[in-house]
Design a protein that fits this description.
The protein is of the alpha+beta class. Among the domains are: about 100 residues, Endonuclease III, domain 1, CATH 1.10.340; about 45 residues, no CATH class. It is built from eight helices and seven strands; from the N terminus they run αααβββααβααβββα. The strands form two sheets. A four-stranded mixed beta sheet has the order 1-2-3-4, with helices on both faces. A hairpin with a 2-residue loop joins strand 2 and strand 3.
């Protein structure tokens, strides 16, 4: 009898019973959906409840590599490389038993942008990649894929990603606080200068403009000069 034992019985609701024991498990016969809408949804998705004790073997095979293998035969550049492999003119390329062209241990992707966009989109926009930069993305893809101009295509793909441009992290050291220049007290105490070059030559031989700007009043003087004038001649012309 239970009364002969020194014990306490505590009730735990279903949400609190995190670890399921043998008594809380339900047989497979009770797992059939009773909701009509749920039954229709399972029928539409072709989902079935497997009885206990039965075994089902699932075989999952990637189809992208098989599609790339079939599309290689329609790429003229890859077919030329295949011919060179037989003539020992492309030492880093090889053709396997199935007729697939490889660059070292990387499969050669044809020019058709369908495959290249799928590969780059999966490596950049998928949930596990989290929008990497061009260098990181190239280092990941170059382990398995190869095509001519691959690095440039990846850099262009990343540059057109709006999410990457908005959330990319800065890896440089903080520049620190800004240190603005002091404000001059009198005009023409401090000046800034620049040159406008590449202009048509005048009758006096001047082909540039020397622009001198006062930092306080922002007044500018424009002097015609020559491109080959030395610092001493520029100082004398003021």
């Amino acid at each position: 009898m239970v009364k002969d034992y020194n014990l306490e019985i505590h009730y735990h609701p279903g949400k609190a019973n995190v670890v399921a024991d043998a008594l809380s498990r339900k047989p497979h016969k009770q797992l059939r959906p009773k909701n009509g809408h749920l039954q229709e949804e399972m029928a539409r998705l072709n989902v079935h409840i497997i009885p206990q004790g039965s075994h089902c073997k699932l075989s999952i095979q990637p189809t992208l590599e098989e599609e790339i293998r079939k599309a290689q035969s329609s790429d003229q550049d890859l077919m030329k490389i295949c011919k060179h492999t037989g003539e020992n003119k492309a030492p880093d390329f090889r053709v396997d038993d199935k007729g697939t062209l490889w660059y070292k241990n990387r499969i050669c992707v044809p020019k058709e942008w369908k495959f290249r966009n799928i590969i780059m989109d999966e490596a950049h926009n998928s949930a596990y990649s989290i929008h990497p930069g061009a260098t990181k993305m190239y280092m990941d893809l170059r382990q398995k894929y190869w095509w001519n101009g691959m690095k440039a295509d990846i850099a262009q793909f990343v540059a057109h990603c709006d999410i990457y441009q908005r959330v990319k992290a800065e890896h440089q050291k903080p520049a620190g606080l800004l240190q603005p220049l002091s404000i001059p007290v009198w005009k023409w105490d401090e000046i800034g200068m620049d040159f406008v070059v590449g202009l048509p030559r005048t009758q006096k031989g001047n082909d540039s403009i020397w622009v001198i700007v006062d930092r306080l009043t922002k007044v500018a003087h424009c002097l015609p000069v020559r491109t080959n004038c030395s610092g001493e001649k520029l100082a004398d012309s003021i």
